[in-house]
Amino acid sequence: MAFNLKEFAIGCGLHDPEGFVAGVDKLYELVIETNKTMNLTRIVEPEEFRIKHVADSLAIAREFPEFASEYLKVADIGCGAGFPSLVLAMAFPNLKVTPIDSTGKKAAFVDHTAQALGLRNVNVVNGRSCELNRRSRFKHQFDVVTARAVAPAPVIYGDADNFPKRKTGRFILYKTPEQAAEDLPALEIMCAKLPIKWHVTETFSLPENAGKRLFLYSGEA
């Protein structure tokens, strides 16, 4: 039985799952067309794209339902082709999403695609998080800092530790169980003298047994 993205979206709290699925179809077309001239993804089959890019990106709302209901400012570090940033912006108009990428062509693609999809809640930034981390425009501005398939969590945290809002802001990072097991000891050492504690969600499976995932996230100690 084929993967049902609409049902998955409903389970993640979307208010307009049909509109979201239509947007995903358009996103797929834009990614595949651009992929002919720019290396965006190796995942090009429609169902695999929906599972490994879209459902994977959307799953954060199942673990953290506030994504579907609260006004949140979200920074997506190393946004690449726009996963999770474009998916989250399409799914949840209540979010204000800032995709960040150091590669100009990828940032330009995400910006163009956001406009093509009519997403007014996306503001793309071309830059390195380690440099943006020192700028007042980015310091303590975000409710959530996320990243998916970019770098080990200690690197992400070290490059963007000023991004989250004081006290309430946090990192929520997409990881496999193996990655989280490798990242946690280093994070705990880095944050040993800080009022920060790191946690992991329960491990879950992507649809059609497409892989194991969890979220590694920060909180007050």
From TrEMBL:
Cited InterPro entries: rRNA_ssu_MeTfrase_G (IPR003682), SAM-dependent_MTases_sf (IPR029063)
Transmembrane portions of the chain: none
Keyword Transferase: yes
Annotated compartments: Cytoplasm
PANTHER family: S-ADENOSYL-L-METHIONINE-DEPENDENT METHYLTRANSFERASES SUPERFAMILY PROTEIN
UniProt similarity note: Belongs to the methyltransferase superfamily. RNA methyltransferase RsmG family.
Protein name per UniProt: Ribosomal RNA small subunit methyltransferase G
